Amino acid sequence: MKKEIFGEDTKIIWTDKKRYFGMPISFTRYSLVEKEGSWIKLFLDTGFLSTKHEEVLVYRIFDISVRQTLGDKIFNVGSLYLYCKDESLEYFNIIRVKNPFKVRDIISDYIEKEREEKGFRIGEFHG
């Protein structure tokens, strides 16, 4: 995902592609992007000829699970399953990315940062 898509006042925090045997040879792209003074979102783009775009504000994520198969461990990849409180997106799955535990920590840090800045607590998302 290119910075031109979001504008000059954005910062791409993390980006990766879905991997096969540790190599990023797919048309599934993930990005964590911050727009200064506005929002931090996770983006998912899939497809080549026809593209599907998904996005979620990080403060709406309330749980993250990481899963690794034996093959994933060999290639240092893994999948993150994010549970969201969003009208259109209940789950946001990040499949087979490099360094999944590092990615989890990056996303978690930004979730807490956004909640603190916006004054949200996790209880406000349940019910």
Oligomer: single chain
Query: What is the CA-atom radius of gyration, in angstroms?
Result: 15 Å
For the biggest sheet, the summary is:
4 strands, antiparallel
Give the overall form.
Answer: globular
> Helical content, roughly?
10-25%
CATH fold assignment: PH-domain like
- The count of strands amounts to 7
Cα end-to-end separation: 35 Å
Total number of distinct structural domains: 1
Q: Tell me the fraction of residues in β-strands, as a range.
A: 35-45%
Overall residue-averaged pLDDT value: 90
* Order of neighbouring strands in the sheet with most strands: 1-2-3-4
Count of helical stretches: 3
CATH architecture designation: Roll
Structural class: alpha+beta
Q: Give helix and strand order, one letter per element, not per position.
A: HEEEEEHEEH
Q: CATH top level?
A: Mainly Beta
Could you name the ranges where pLDDT drops below 50 across 5 or more consecutive residues? Answer: none
Please give the structural blueprint.
Elements lengths: L2 H4 L3 E8 L10 E8 L3 E8 L5 E6 L3 E7 L2 H5 L2 E8 L6 E8 L1 H19 L9
Give a verbal description of the structure.
The chain has 127 residues and is an alpha+beta fold. It has a single domain, classed as PH-domain like, CATH 2.30.29. Helices cover 22% and strands 42% of the residues. The chain contains three helices and seven strands, in the order αβββββαββα. It has helices spanning 3-6, 70-74, 100-118, and strands at 10-17, 28-35, 39-46, 52-57, 61-67, 77-84, 91-98. The strands form two sheets. The chain has a four-stranded antiparallel beta sheet, with helices on one face. Strands 5-6-7 form a three-stranded antiparallel beta sheet. Strand 6 and strand 7 (91-98) form a beta hairpin.
